[in-house]
Design a protein that fits this description.
Layout (H helix, E strand, L loop, with lengths): L11 E3 L10 E4 L4 E4 L8 E5 L4 E8 L3 E6 L2 E6 L3 E3 L53 H5 L2 E2 L15 E6 L14 H15 L6 E5 L5 H14 L6 E6 L2 E5 L6 E7 L5 E3 H14 L3 E6 L9 E4 L2 E5 L14 E3 L16 E5 L8 E3 L3 E2 H12 L5 H15 L12 E4 L12 H13 L11 H10 L8 H10 L8 E3 L3 E3 L7 E4 L4 E9 L5 E5 L8 E2 L4 E4 L13 E10 L9 E5 L2 E4 L3 H11 L8 H5 L14 E10 L1
Parallel strand pairs: 10-11, 12-16, 14-19, 16-20, 25-34
Antiparallel strand pairs: 1-9, 1-32, 2-5, 2-8, 3-4, 5-6, 6-7, 13-14, 14-15, 17-18, 18-21, 20-23, 21-22, 24-26, 26-30, 27-28, 27-29, 27-31, 28-33, 31-34, 32-33
């Protein structure tokens, strides 16, 4: 199936440096590193480590696991999550390849955070194992992330804050217009979160077919469980709003956000999910760039830009002229925090107004609010709102079709949402990347020379796109092992989910990659943040996707390429270049990204271990083997 609209995110370089085999005392490298009861990812987690936590070596289980003592508890932790004190080139471990993630400075005000609405995830985050995507991003599983930024944050950062960004550009539903400006809003929302002090690895992007009613509910429910006290939180939504008459009648209107599956996420539902966040942190910012009035629904050209109202009627009828409006900003009774109202709820327009979407720049409310966050010097939310409102009015001045809509904010408008220690250069760099549409699609730097050299030595052809990479991987697979994959030839758009069976030829590991027909998008679908257990047994028939991450055919019509890889040793996924997008990894579609993909598939995760380097092919441990099997399936999406 085509997941081009399913996933998107910032490209990061993921690299893993494994320690030498002589372990004594070590330090946890990644946030969310779990201590398990047994040496298996499927066993219960009894403790979570944080970067800098000290662990004491107790025992080992092969190359993969170490039994350690953490805060007085003994359990098993993945060795890749630990840096050992006696590691170093002389001890057989390679130098660390990835830079440490920057450390967040204290937020200037206890209520400095802004919450962003999540874009849709392919599968609700709450359906995952006990470990959560927010607390353990891909960097914590496959290796630390090295984002390439034009201007570095002011101080080194450790993971901080949470942001969930939901955006629907392609609804692909009758009588519902698409919104070409929403992808720009995704970049702007990410920049807003980073200005608040949320570190880049804590920004989760959910796009288009990922943004179902169920996924929003599950994601926000899980978010409330993971947010730390006082941590900055952004919840952001860009898409259509809707309004409909209450089933109880009496002229009462219900407002909500239109999800990609045609359902309305009502104000009451949103309030119930936001309240637990507001009770947990004084740094909450919720931003809805949608409107809830049907006065303007058609796309109207206004010069070189295209403006469109972000409203869609509820399926089965147009919006009624209700006399009582339940605004998205109106909290349910008892919804306030016991400790005050140190939060911000922002909406792009009043209840009786239409918010405008600029197809070339994004929503006017989002674009102008971000501009004013960058240009202001420690301004309050109220000052930023006034600045953004002026921008909206200037943009729509003398427009014969659209009247200026009013950015509406409730909560503590004295909050100063932008971190006080950010340099002007850094803020401008975020703004520039958001404007260029590159912030959620960063490609890692300084990796191409090393990757190209290794692949060339192994006789790999040059690959520039996913189709070339997939074909090369199949061509270089071990010829003696057949990987049996049973997959459908066709899937009906918006009607059928992907279901396939893979028979494991031996004990080992499974990996699934996907690309669109045009080669513009590629993803690591499995393992993922909600389903990391990719170890299989000989003869086992594995059904994928599992129940925790169903994948619906989302269109458009065309072919989807699914690459299934099996290996007896774990693959070096730390080589991949990509960014977590919901539970999956959105791979960088570039020569660097695709060459990194072929390198990741063609080498063991332990290729740089002393045992593997010293061994000959004849006596190398099984964990060192570069051999793999591969099967390429082409599935056509049809109406």
């Amino acid at each position: 199936m085509n997941f081009a609209n399913l996933l998107a995110g910032t490209s990061l370089a993921l690299a893993v440096a494994l320690p030498a085999l002589a372990d004594t005392i070590g330090t946890v490298k990644f946030p969310g590193a779990e201590l398990h009861v047994t040496a298996s990812m499927s066993s219960p987690a009894i403790e979570k480590g944080a970067p800098g936590d000290r662990v004491e070596f107790v025992a080992r289980d092969g190359l993969f696991w170490r039994k350690v003592r953490l805060r007085g508890k003994e359990g098993w932790m993945l060795r890749a999550a630990i840096t050992w004190d006696d590691d170093g080139p002389g001890a057989g471990a390679p130098p660390v390849a990835a830079a440490t993630a920057p450390q967040a400075a204290p937020v200037a005000s206890p209520a400095t955070a802004v919450a962003a609405v999540p874009s849709q995830a392919a599968q609700p985050a709450a359906a995952a194992r006990p470990s959560n995507p927010f607390a353990a991003p891909f960097a914590a599983i496959f290796g630390p992330a090295t984002p390439a930024a034009p201007a570095a944050p002011p101080v080194p950062q450790v993971p901080n804050g949470q942001a969930v960004v939901f955006g629907i550009s392609q609804y692909n539903r009758p009588n519902v217009s698409n919104l070409p400006g929403v992808p720009h809003d995704m970049d702007s929302a990410k920049a807003m979160a980073m200005l608040m002090g949320v570190t880049e690895d804590r920004v989760s992007i959910y796009r288009d077919t990922m943004v179902t009613h169920e996924a929003i509910s599950a994601t926000l429910t899980q978010l409330a469980k993971e947010v730390a006290e006082g941590e900055p939180v952004l919840v952001y939504f860009s898409g259509h709003g809707s309004r409909f008459e209450s089933p109880q009648g009496s002229g009462r209107c219900l407002e909500g956000l239109l999800t990609v599956d045609g359902k309305i996420f009502t104000a009451d539902e949103m309030s119930a999910l936001i309240q637990p966040l507001a009770r947990k942190t004084d740094s909450l910012f919720v931003f809805f760039d949608a409107c809830h009035t049907g006065n303007l629904t058609a796309s109207r050209a206004t010069g070189p830009q295209q403006l469109q109202a972000k409203f869609a009627p509820r399926a089965g009828g147009a919006a009624s002229n209700c006399s009582q409006v339940v605004n998205m900003l109106k909290p349910s009774p008892g919804g306030g925090r016991a400790t005050g109202n140190r939060y911000i709820y922002a909406a792009a327009a009043r209840a009786d107004e239409a918010a405008a979407d600029d197809g070339e720049k994004g929503g006017l409310a989002t674009t102008n609010f971000l501009n004013c966050m960058v240009s202001g010097n420690g301004q309050t939310v109220d000052a930023i709102r006034a600045c953004a409102q002026l921008g909206i009015e200037l943009r729509l001045k003398d427009n014969a079709t659209f009247k200026p809509h009013h950015l509406t904010i409730s909560g503590d408008v004295s909050i100063r949402p932008v971190r006080a220690d950010l340099s002007a250069a850094y803020k401008q760099s975020l703004l520039a990347e958001a404007a260029d549409g590159t912030l959620t699609n960063r490609v890692a730097r300084a990796k191409s020379a090393q990757v190209s050299m290794v692949l060339s030595a192994q006789g790999w052809p040059r690959v520039d796109n996913p189709i070339q990479a997939f074909n090369a991987i199949v061509a270089k697979a071990e010829p003696g092992t057949v990987l049996v994959v049973d997959a459908p030839q066709t899937l009906k758009i918006n009607a059928q989910t992907l279901q396939m069976k893979v028979r494991a030829p031996a004990d080992g590991y499974l990996y699934v990659f996907q690309s669109s027909e045009n080669g513009k998008n590629a993803y690591l679908l499995f393992p993922n943040l909600v389903d990391r257990e990719n170890r299989v047994s000989a003869g086992q028939s594995v059904e994928l996707p599992r129940a925790s991450w169903p994948l619906m055919a989302g269109g458009p019509e065309g072919e989807d390429h699914l690459l299934v890889v099996f290996s007896t040793s774990e693959r070096d996924l730390g080589q991949l270049v990509g960014q977590s997008a919901g539970p999956f990894l959105d791979l960088a579609v570039s020569p660097i990204g695709m060459q990194a993909l072929t390198l990741a598939v063609s080498r063991s995760a332990f290729a740089d271990e002393a045992e593997c380097k010293a061994a000959t092919p004849a006596n190398a441990p099984a964990a060192c083997s570069p051999a793999y099997s591969a099967s390429l399936k082409i599935i056509r999406e049809i109406r």
